[in-house]
Amino acid sequence: MKKIFFLLFFLLFLMLPGCAKKVDLGPGYERTSKHLLQALRWQDYQGAAMFLAEQDGRQLLDSFEQLNDLHVVEAEYKYSRLNQKEGTAESELILSYYMLPSTRIKDWSWKIDWVLIPLDTQQRGRWQVQGPPPAFP
After folding, report:
1. Where along the chain do its domains lie?
2. 102-133: per-residue pLDDT in tens?
């Protein structure tokens, strides 16, 4: 009986540390998507454009940089789905904002398709947004 108890205790002891860690669903996906969210939240459009292909990043900058009266209230993901096997993810970003002189808060939605781009044999790759953002109202 002591051996069974000791074996169960030992197995439980080995399994507990695995439960405590937050699992990253893809190589850097969680961190990368969070950085994009924060960049938009703090109106760092140059930083946000870095997560898009060059031409799509320019389109994001053209849409947002001219809006001096834009004030972002909140940015969050409505959902985020990762397909680790295919190296893709999809999410929907909701940006709550107001544009002076109005103080009415509105929402803008961006359905984002992410793809994992392989870099080399040393690194697994980096996540990039596919396609430009929708037109900002």
Report:
1. 26-130
2. 999 999 999 999 999 887 665 568 899 999 99
